[in-house]
Amino acid sequence: MIAISIESLTKRFGSHAALDDVSLRIEPGELFFLLGPSGCGKTTLLRTIAGFVTPDAGRVLFDREDVTKLPVHKRRTGMMFQSYALWPHLSVARNVAFGLEEQGVPAAEREKRVREALASVRMDSYAERKIGQLSGGQQQRVALARALVVRPRALLLDEPLSNLDAKLRLEMRSEIRRVCKEFGLTAVYVTHDQKEALSVADRLAVMSEGRIAQIGCPEEVYRRPHSRLVAEFIGETNILRGKVVSRAGEEMLVATAAGKFSARATGVLRTTAEEGVLVSIRPEGWRISDTGGENSIPAVLRSTMYLGEFAQHEFTAGGEALKALELNPHLAHRVIGRQYFLEPLDAVVLNDTP
Ligand SMILES: Nc1ncnc2c1ncn2[C@@H]1O[C@H](COP(=O)(O)OP(=O)(O)OP(=O)(O)O)[C@@H](O)[C@H]1O
């Protein structure tokens, strides 16, 4: 198990900084996710850790070893990419053995390790099959075995599941997590899929324009986003403009066009009360009721969509459109055009200036 330290990495392509002074530390055995909008630099960061990209400034350390100038094959990382890059005409076992042949591992040892790697992804009974005769999910398992067989110091994954259908993605997500934990691997995983990140990551970083916007465990980043960018990138949210009426530590009473309610500051609040603030409330973060309480705002139900386990409502309050999700909608019988009361349970004051 190694720690991966990224120290002030900068990488420019022409005048564009794909990485702009990025620093972070990934703990030994941690499953760390990089996500963010397209072009934010996550692949460049992963490729710099792998050794495919040489940074203009900054360092990459594996524990205390500076690997910034070390070529890819000497870093001893296992990699799994979007295109599995397996040889379709070779057997599963040959595909997995390839990295070991390159390292000059003797045949008997090779065979043993290939068997172990295939067993760890539950593909041991497919060793002699040709890659072309496997399903997408099975091919993905072989790609994972191939990354593991070299006993990597860290596992680097770039959108490894994006070629799979939804059901297989779910299955492979937990499979990748299981394998990483079983082997105690430090892993860095790039994805577009925020659900994948929330459900699998120990910690994650949301990137934007070559910088880290926020780092934290999934629940922290989801429930306490620091900025509009993070709040909107990880899941859906309602953003309301407001003014701070009063404040006691992190708790504040904010007045918005939709009404007054309490919200909690996240990170360092840069704005002053006069400038106003932005508040984020997740659609599932409302308590909907027929009668108002102290902290609730009156809102008229405009539309509702029944989705089985929950309903997706749209309310208006003081000219603001508000999205709300309600679990077990069949227990509630909401009526379009009627007034209800919405209480924000998890409102967060963001750091951005409106
Ligand atoms: N080899 C390259 N030459 C020139 N520009 C590049 C190169 N690689 C990346 N870039 C640019 O650097 C920026 C970051 O790219 P990167 O691939 O790291 O983003 P990303 O977050 O992984 O995006 P995506 O989610 O679309 O894969 C982008 O603006 C991209 O166009």
UniProtKB/TrEMBL annotation:
The keyword Nucleotide-binding applies. SUPFAM superfamilies: MOP-like, P-loop containing nucleoside triphosphate hydrolases. GO terms for molecular function: ATP binding; ATP hydrolysis activity; transmembrane transporter activity. One of its GO terms (biological process) is quaternary ammonium group transport. InterPro entries: AAA+_ATPase (IPR003593), ABC_SmlMolc_Importer (IPR050093), ABC_transporter-like_ATP-bd (IPR003439), ABC_transporter-like_CS (IPR017871), Mo/tungstate-bd_C_term_dom (IPR008995), P-loop_NTPase (IPR027417), Transp-assoc_OB_typ2 (IPR013611). It holds the Pfam family TOBE_2. Residues 4-234 form the ABC transporter domain. Keywords: ATP-binding, Nucleotide-binding, Transport. One of its GO terms (cellular component) is ATP-binding cassette (ABC) transporter complex. Gene3D superfamilies: 2.40.50.100, P-loop containing nucleotide triphosphate hydrolases. This is Iron(III) transport system ATP-binding protein.
